[in-house]
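Exercise 4. Each item below gives a protein and its sequence. For each, produce the structure-token representation.

Item: Transmembrane protein (Mycolicibacterium chitae).
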Amino acid sequence: MSAPAAVAAAAIFFWLGMVAAISFLEAPLKFRAPGVTLPIGLGIGRLVFKALNGCEVVLALVVVAALVLGAPSVVVVVAAGVAVVALLAQLVAVRPRLTQRSNAVLAGGPESGKRSRVHFVYLGLELVKVIGLLVAGIAVLAG
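Answer:
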């Protein structure tokens, strides 16, 4: 395995692990902890996802750089591209709407009692990203 492929594989699987741990484990569990109110849970979520997304951007840049420097297969490029595009969609289109929504909930506005569909969009993009990362990581290792 070439050095760029090894770096790409490491970054892809590290990124995958972070997304899986935060989005599918920490996020839903925090609201079940004793004493965690909705405002506290939203505050924690904002901090955690801001940090996660920052790490994801760095990892996406590492993956892209490693792929540019290496000779990846089409499968690796497409799968990694899907993950990067899903991340960009989350950051540009979904996160601002989630921030508006959490601001309204924290202010006790009329939306505070309703379930948000924007969270489902974010979750759907997380699933797309996870699949893209999994396929890219396996393809790099198989390559």
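Check: The helical segments are 3-30, 38-69, 74-106, 118-142.
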